[in-house]
Amino acid sequence: MEITKELADNQALLSHALCFDPINQQQVPGGDFRLHFREFDNVPGIRILEDGGVEVTFYAPGAKTVQIQGLGGSFEGIYDLEPVETMTGYWRTVLTGLMSGFHYHWYLVDGVKTFHPTIPFGYGCSYVMNYFELPDPEFTDYLLKDVPHGSLHMELYHSGVTGRERNCWVYTPPGYTEDPGKRYPVFYLQHGGGENETGWIWQGKINYILDNLIAQKKCREMILVMNCGYNFQSRGNGTFILEDIPEVICRDCVPMIDKRYRTIPQKEYRAMAGLSFGSVHARMTVLGNTDVFSSLGIFSGGFDYKTTGARGEGNLGVYDYSEIFRSSETFKEHLKLLFVGMGSLETDMIEGCRERLEELQQAGIEIEHHLYEGYHEWNVWRKCAYDMAQKLFQW
Asked: In this structure, are strands 54-59 and 165-172 parallel, antiparallel, or unpaired?
């Protein structure tokens, strides 16, 4: 795999919630009432090599050991950095054999977890974490390109369900403000466990995915809504319990979006998908409210339409939507699209849902089922969203 400098330097790979354009500058004193800057003394924390290797450099003067710890997939385990002989205080290693895509990780300095100050930050695993991107020359439609761009809006709204204010991010497509009479379908997209409503923006790059698809006329112009997937209900004494999310989405968020944006307020033009933990949110919300939604996407969430445990999946409620899948006719009455995608290396998940998917397909129920090279990670979920968006609202 050869990675060009132009590809490795794409701003989408370097921008993050704290810094969109991380120019390597710091402010220094000046004497003419103007701000003066100079380049930081440090060197790039991450450098993508042409052969697909990843050079990691960390400044830790006085440290006895410096390590980097990957969090799964093709980047798992702890790797030692070695002192750089020509650069006092710097430590370095080159990672090889990683798959393309997004990689969360920790740094360990003398065994203590810490952050790298000069590479991107995101929210994952319920922590602020560093990540880096190893670009894939064969899939570039999540990168920043010279096409018209949509806009991102942060919306605050009161939840009658939780009794608290909530936040969601909303993407409107390019040209949204130019035609005040035009209405749009809406795609609700949920993050995974340990992440939040910013995940699909900074980790998923979903706004760039839609920008590029729309520019290529591969998908319909649409509004995208990204909600926080946690419905924490207070139990007093500073404790909370995680309750189900569908009521928050259907009772609080959907009416707010339909009021504030030019939506097509019909079930045929509302879809919902989610990754991992968020796929359970999407499944419960859509299948439990087919009067509100007509399309469902499950990304790395296996597939079934009923729970078997006392509390169901991921501490969520019990559900049984068997009636929807009783026949191809009843399925078509409720759903326009069911999209199921996962990583080719999520072997347990693949086996866990294989029999159910085959059973439904033999019954004539049409399911979009896709496997993407990879593990339980963002490079798989980006491709799920990329493909599902092209199928949505084509009726």
From this structure: unpaired
CA Rg value for the chain? 23
Which residues are within 8 A (CB) of 31 and not within 5 positions of it... i.e. 6 or more apart? none
Which pTM was predicted?
0.92
Give the pairing type, strands 270-275 and 295-299: parallel
- Residue 166 is encoded by which pair of tokens? 């909530």
Residue 80 Cα distances to 92, 100, 134, 356, angstroms: 8, 21, 20, 44
Q: Which amino acid is at 358?
A: E
Alpha-carbon distance of 240 to 164, in angstroms, equals: 13
Residues with Cβ < 8 Å from 221, sequence gap 6 or more?
173, 174, 175, 184, 214
Under DSSP, the state recorded for 65 is: -
List the pLDDT tens digit at each of the 395 positions of the chain. Answer: 689 989 998 999 988 988 888 766 666 677 666 766 665 555 789 999 999 999 999 999 999 999 999 998 899 999 999 999 999 999 999 999 999 999 999 999 999 999 998 899 999 988 899 999 999 999 999 999 999 999 999 999 999 988 889 999 999 999 999 999 999 999 999 999 999 999 999 999 999 999 999 999 999 999 999 999 887 666 677 666 666 789 999 999 999 999 999 999 999 999 999 999 999 999 999 999 999 999 999 999 998 888 765 544 444 567 899 999 999 999 999 999 999 999 999 999 999 999 899 999 899 999 999 999 999 999 999 999 999 999 999 98
Of 344, 323, 224, 220, give the one whose Cα is nearest residue 274: 224
Three-state SS for 289? Answer: coil
Indicate the burial class of 160 (C-beta count within 10 angstroms; 0-12, 13-18, 19 or more): exposed
At 279, list the tokens: 């796929």
Q: Residue 225 and residue 171: Cα distance in Å, rounded?
A: 7
Q: Residue 349: which H helix or E strand, with range?
A: helix 347-362
Strand pairing report for 66-72 and 101-109: antiparallel
Count of positions (residues) in the chain: 395
